[in-house]
Amino acid sequence: MNKEKSLSNFASRMFINLLGIPAIILLARAGGLPYTVFFGLVAVLGQIEFYNLIKQKGFQPWINVGVISGIVWILIAYLSQGLLCPLLLLFLLGFLLIVLFHPVTNAIVNVAVTFLGFLYLPFLISILIILREMPKRYDGNYLDGYFLVVLVFSSIWICDALAYVFGKWLGKRHKIAPKISPGKSWAGCIAGLCGALLTIILFYYLDWKPENLGLRDLLIIGLITGIIGQAGDFVESAFKRDVGVKDSSSLLLGHGGILDRFDSFLIAPGFVYLYLLIIL
Amino acid sequence: MNKEKSLSNFASRMFINLLGIPAIILLARAGGLPYTVFFGLVAVLGQIEFYNLIKQKGFQPWINVGVISGIVWILIAYLSQGLLCPLLLLFLLGFLLIVLFHPVTNAIVNVAVTFLGFLYLPFLISILIILREMPKRYDGNYLDGYFLVVLVFSSIWICDALAYVFGKWLGKRHKIAPKISPGKSWAGCIAGLCGALLTIILFYYLDWKPENLGLRDLLIIGLITGIIGQAGDFVESAFKRDVGVKDSSSLLLGHGGILDRFDSFLIAPGFVYLYLLIIL
Hints:
The structure is a homodimer. By secondary structure, chain A is an all-alpha fold. Chain A has one domain (3-279). Chain A contains 10 helices and no strands. Chain A has helices spanning 3-30, 32-56, 63-80, 85-98, 107-137, 142-170, 186-206, 215-243, 258-262, 264-279. At the A-B interface, α4, α5, α8 and α10 of A face α4, α5, α8 and α10 of B.
């Protein structure tokens, strides 16, 4: 990547963050449908981007089936306020049966990538909605869901920002996995983890946190966002590298690379949800 | 397929049925670990067959990761006596992260087909174990699980047998989907459905049934096994046709085509389980 492109990428990143971060915080505060619709859009646009990545490889994901299932799943997650396993089974059975209405060529791979696109985007994004709506389930204070998701988002954002800045500054050597993501260095990664943990500690002392979570719980959440969040970036980098594109946004010009912007939001919140299920 | 091969296929089918059907009924009667271990083996051998199918297409499913996950999932299903959605989320997150320890080439497709193999075999087969163990969950009579799975298996077997015999006899014309499965005719399909329903009615009058299921419930189960069971055969045919093999057993000589023998057991029981969740 040349310097100019790197700068314009950084500028677009800053611009999106400047508008996007306050917007997401406001949406998280509101919760309910506005928040669900926003992340539903993220899920569906990300899913289309993902399917376009796969098309570059010469496969034919069933975009319509995947996207309609994605929208239905997001609504189910919102309405049920929890992961419904029997419904996930129904989706899997449905995807398998829909094989019969598609050409046999590449049947296995096409059903596999279509279903993976559904799981990677709408299914994992639905966790963000479930986390926000969780207090409803336990008759808790509805704002606790707000504190929870903002805590998760903020630690991911600060982690990303510090990883970026420290990576530029100190990360000339000691790359983590240059074949997957040439830019990422251990220096940036450790700075990112520290950023995630410092965010958590700050939020704890400001008491911007769900009532029933203590410092230990919050630190575990910080470790998850700081470590798994960055690992999630690598997963998406591996997917892009597989296809041979640098930037998922280059596939869908105009809306700016949903996968690139939200890659840390896909895997880490799933682990946060699992941790909360254990302790709650 | 030439006549000789068709005959030897029929003979091997008869032989396996003659030994296999009473064995499976005895295992279902015993329940518990023997039944779980048997279907665990079916799941894992079927999964390996499925991965070998995919390898024919030039992809590299992570066989070890898939199979170990499959074994763990089967044990979890047995111990928990229900589908655990948070654990399925954990498996998905794990599969995504394991991308990072594999070559980037074909990363998306390899994770997609590995996960599909896990879902199609161990995950769906685990439903058979959950159905058998269900009464434990509801403090019911443990033999009700036996009656339930034998009812499902028998209606699938009779359906398959009648579809085969009537298909040979009357099914020269009116093929359903010759591109996917050249042998299957509407005559065979309708005979199969009638066979499934007649089995159900027979079991009802012999009172070989779970205590809390009435005739209507049983007939719905018969419709599921008679219709969806046959659709499940088509799904597997589409997968084999995609790869260009006639018989999944030809890939793993010796243990005789698990996917071919159990293809009707994969999708229909999932719908039976969903129906029971609705009515129970």
